[in-house]
Predict the structure.
Amino acid sequence: MKMEHYIAQLLYRYQCVTVPGFGAFLTEIQPAQLLESSNTFYPPKKVISFNSHLKNNDGLLANHIAQAEKINYEIAVQNISKEIALWKNALLNQQNVVLKLVGTLHLNTSGTLSFEAASQINFNTSSFGLNTFVSPLVQREILEKMPEVVVNEPIVMIPETVTSSRNSYLKYAAVFILALSAAGSIGYKMYNDKMDQELQFVQTEVQKDVQNKIQEATFFIDNPLPNVTLTVREEKKNYHIVAGAFSSEANAERQLKMLQAKGFKGKILERNKYGLVPVLYGSYSTYSESQIALKEIHKTESQEAWLLIKD
């Protein structure tokens, strides 16, 4: 059985594919990128990583193999166990486990399991048909700044007799303009004072009239508006962080109480098609919010928490 073939099929549709008793393959969306050194554009893709701490059987891989090979679920679980035994034996003999289209597993010098993802397949279905391409370098012309042209004003020669006579006329004109300005300022101030007095009188009379009408008026409504009922639609939260899945509802309730005691807004989902009751750390409305919460839970609570996307 080539189990890597079934793992690759599930990576297109799910964020987490767990191999029971061995580990889990996780995906994370990486946006489009530009490598400026070679002018190469890369489309959005799913980055594959491996977590050896997630070993619980969530039933996803076994059920997929059972349906694909038309065998019982229990037989599919047994076949997975046999395949894992071969992987572990190869790793102990310092051999690489090459999973076609997924990546390569090997033990490093410290005995820790390492994973190197394959690069030839993009598991992001929204990027289907988008390939890496190299764009030619765009050459931009730099325009030189033109020097400023300074135009010298012509010099006009005025006879001395004309200049002296013109200065005399200008003196008389300036005295006359100052006199007119002074008279105009005085008249304008008197006009403004008169208008302010009349405006204040009119405003006082209007306020008296309004106050009298308010005191005499009686307010009533013959046809009051009907009561309006507002319906607030609850925000959908499709991203759930799973703490564990239990076959016993009592165990699920016990796990929920432990999470709530730690401050999590946990809840229990309905029993899934595999007969397990999922217990949640919490639910989130966006993928980015769930990723932030999942990283924090991995750091402070448990490395076995995983993300369930469900409408």
The mean pLDDT is 78. DSSP finds six helices and 13 strands in the chain.
